[in-house]
């Protein structure tokens, strides 16, 4: 009880409330702007939050993270353009509803489902907390090493169709993390006798380059585009009630979102895919999916909004981020010397509770804001994409330069901007680089400390959690090889009566 | 229909320029591999897991192996037209890299507020917005960014050298907030 009250008092600080308001409303606007997205906004704001208290900085970033997907549903439903990449599936059923004159109904359902998914995930997070607090202290160096290794493997395997690319980019991230002065033996690694490389390559600089500057370059160079003028009318509150009619889909989709959010490297896309498939297979009207099915819309929105809350679980409990946005948030913890992991639950439970409550509050703020200001948002999002590019480039400068006033940092970030632009143009994943950098650092430190007490290789997995994690790694690799084998076998088998799904796309890499 | 569109969402299709990137990345990985001996040191009386070269070695070998497989899959696929047009697009981004770096160099001299407003207006003109409204909005955006980040959030951006020449009455204010 005392911890809860302490958590409430942390949350009631005016700076936290302001951060919550700015983060949640700002996140909705950012999410609604096609071509920006939460990753760009968080990358830009990250250095500025280092000056704040950790709870203030994290609340601001979490606000943006948690609310951007709400905003992303608006252009997805009304103009068939997803605000963020994870709202792509929302267009399938949202836009057909708009074409039938049910835009208000689709928006209302999307908001309700998002709210349900968001709050469901936070409740799961709160319920799991005591379990986490119990289990987390059993995670020593070898368990954290194995969990980070599992994370890297999952990140690579989750990129189906581009596993080779994901593997080489994750390895590139691990390499980037190793550049500079090695922290234990103080020898130089890949510095090429350049003093500016001796201190290593800063994660924030890479993040800003890959996410923000690359996006600015892309928007500046590509054809200009501005979302058309649109307006929504009708009862936007009706979806709150309608959601009760599809509560099974909402609950299962949110559960899938929570589970996928906890597993590193999978995230919103996989959870959406599984939820949508589940909803379609169990629906009485599966033929309506893709043509304005409320169930499809709810499945997509509930699943993707459940992910942010769940993604905090491995971050808070083990200090292991599952995707790029939580990797960025990890740096906020580190800057303030708050180390997420087992000790956080033992020593700063009030801080953790304040974070949970902030997450719930942000969902309430966003829902209320959206129910009353959707038409206002529709005016805001009509910014031409090239002008958005100008805005992002100017804001990215603040992010990079304010770190340590280094022109070299800006040049490195611009270099990664070009690299990120190429990756985006080629539809190659950026996230493995960031996770490679973060998890590579964790693996290096933890392997060194774990091996000091290991005499034989079997000692490494002689503790229950280490053995489970090792078993999971082996199982996942075996299952993946098995899937590849069957896919290969199926490809060899001729099916003359069936049209291949991808016959008109011979260049697909499956 | 849906099965197909869902597959579309979750599978990747090769794009023009894929093989160029694959070759460049593989060449970079092989170059790093060739430098492994020079750029890392083997420390005596230190076990393998604590050797400074362990993680760069793992990372670079993975880059080479996965990079080779990625190149192979690109090279064995059908050629897509527009490869060099795509490479041209990548090269065009260097124009904006140059503008960005000029802006970075100008800020400590001219000051954050004037540089940002000028940069915003310049970029707006460069990308094709010529109307007075667009220019005004760009300048206003530059102004707001400066006030929010330097004036309000007090982020670490040095004051402009030219601010020293301002009259006493405004110099201190400019040095602190603009």
TrEMBL record, chain A:
Signal peptide: none annotated. Residues 17-435 form the DUF112 domain. It comes from the Bacteria. The keyword Disulfide bond does not apply. InterPro entries: DUF112_TM (IPR002823). Pfam families: TctA (PF01970). The chain crosses the membrane at residues 12-33, 39-62, 69-89, 109-135, 147-176, 196-221, 315-339, 351-371, 383-400, 428-445, 465-485. Keywords: Membrane, Transmembrane, Transmembrane helix. The keyword DNA repair does not apply. This is Tripartite tricarboxylate transporter TctA family protein.
From TrEMBL, chain B:
The keyword Transmembrane applies. It comes from the Bacteria. Keywords: Membrane, Transmembrane, Transmembrane helix. The keyword Nucleotidyltransferase does not apply. Residues 20-158 form the DUF1468 domain. InterPro entries: DUF1468. The chain crosses the membrane at residues 53-72, 93-112, 132-153. This is Tripartite tricarboxylate transporter TctB family protein. It comes from Ruegeria denitrificans.
